[in-house]
Amino acid sequence: MGLFTMESTKHQSCIDACNRCAEECYKCFHACLNEPDLNARKNCVSMLVECAMMCQMSVSMMSMKGQYSMEHCSLCAKICDSCAKECNMFNDDHCQDCAQACKTCADECRKMSSM
């Protein structure tokens, strides 16, 4: 997979959490589109895409050691918290799995933003 430096490995747990969160958000998005109460999930579905995109951008920022990585991760944590809150409103397994991935990502992003 290439060479890892100490700099890249210290961000690896956050990168991994962001990748997992984006994956879970997209899975949940697809599953929610097929739920009978889709209309009640409008805000959640929108938040899922926003969260996934933010997580993907955070991965890119950390990977390139961007100047604003810490600030970006701080905002990513806020968005992940909001997404987890939305997903927790629904009892489906896909929403609960996504909420957990979002919480984990938010925690990792907060750690990253305080480095």
Oligomer designation: single chain
Parts with pLDDT < 50 across at least 5 consecutive residues: 1-6
As a whole number of angstroms, the C-alpha radius of gyration is 14 Å
Q: From the 3D coordinates, which CATH architecture would you assign?
A: Up-down Bundle
CATH C-level category: Mainly Alpha
Helix content: over 70%
Sheet with the most strands? none
Apparent shape: elongated
The tally of beta strands, per DSSP, is 0
**Mean pLDDT score, rounded?**
92
Number of self-contained structural domains = 1
Strand and helix order: HHHHH
Strand content: under 5%
Supply the key terms.
about 120 residues, mainly alpha, Substrate Binding Domain Of Dnak, Chain:A, Domain 2
Structure description:
This protein is mainly alpha-helical. The chain has a single domain, classed as Up-down Bundle (Substrate Binding Domain Of Dnak, Chain:A, Domain 2). The two termini are 25 Å apart. The radius of gyration is 14 Å and the shape is elongated. It is built from five helices and no strands. The model is unreliable at 1-6 (pLDDT under 50). Helix 2 (12-33) packs antiparallel against helix 5 (93-113), helix 3 (42-63) packs antiparallel against helix 4 (69-87) and helix 4 runs antiparallel to helix 5. The chain has helices spanning 6-10, 12-33, 42-63, 69-87, 93-113.
